[in-house]
Amino acid sequence: MDRAQKEKVVEELGQIFESSGVVVVAHYAGITVAQMQDLRAKMREAGGSVRVAKNKLAKIALDGKPSAKMADLLTGMTVMAYSEDPVAAAKVAEEYAKKNDKFVILGGTMGDILLDPAGVKAVAALPSREELIASIVSCIGAPASNIAGAIGAPASNIAGILSTIEDKAAA
């Protein structure tokens, strides 16, 4: 890799570290290409990405970024999983680590907060952005449906009473 390519990689990594809600760092020694492709596919489905880069270049890119505390995690064969959603990358990485013992989570960052493996697990247990939005919408929609049911109920009760009176009068 020549100097221009290295500068480009450092710039790309810097953008990743600035714009990501969470970055998870893991060792991947012994993982096959097919397994890595599987991880990348799962991460894409969740709205995240996976990046393998030289640790030295990643440490240069971390300099001056909010997630600079993560530099100590970058030793050995590391892979970074990241996403804008603060939960997505952690959730996929945690699920993948459960199925593959060669994928070992070292930690990560969430903004300027350094996460240890237990911290990544805790973030993965949180509901995703979409789940939170669905929960809020259902909370907002429930009172409206209750009001509509309450307004519609008396009319249906009156109609039922009138039909009963009509049936009795006809008999």
List keywords for this structure.
about 170 residues; alpha+beta; 5-stranded antiparallel beta sheet; 6 helices; 5 strands; about 15% strand; elongated
Q: Give start-end ranges of low-pLDDT stretches.
A: none
Looking at the structure, what is the overall shape? elongated
Distance between the termini: 96 Å
Instruction: Spell the H/E element sequence.
Output: HEHEHEHEEHH
Strands, count = 5
Radius of gyration: 26 Å
Helix-strand category: alpha+beta
Query: Main β-sheet: number of strands, strand sense, barrel status?
Result: 5 strands, antiparallel
Order of adjacent strands in the largest pleated sheet: 2-3-1-4-5
Tell me the β content: 15-25%
Let me know the average pLDDT: 84
The helicity comes to: 55-70%
The multimeric state of the shown protein is: single chain
Number of helices: 6
Can you walk through the features of this model?
- With 171 residues, the chain is an alpha+beta fold.
- It has helices spanning 3-19, 33-45, 55-62, 88-99, 117-125, 129-170; strands at 22-27, 48-51, 78-83, 104-110, 113-115.
- The protein has a five-stranded antiparallel beta sheet, with helices on both faces.
- A hairpin with a 2-residue loop joins strand 4 and strand 5.
- Helix 4 packs across helix 5.
- It is elongated and about 95 Å long.
- It starts with a helix and ends with a helix.
- The relative contact order is 0.14.
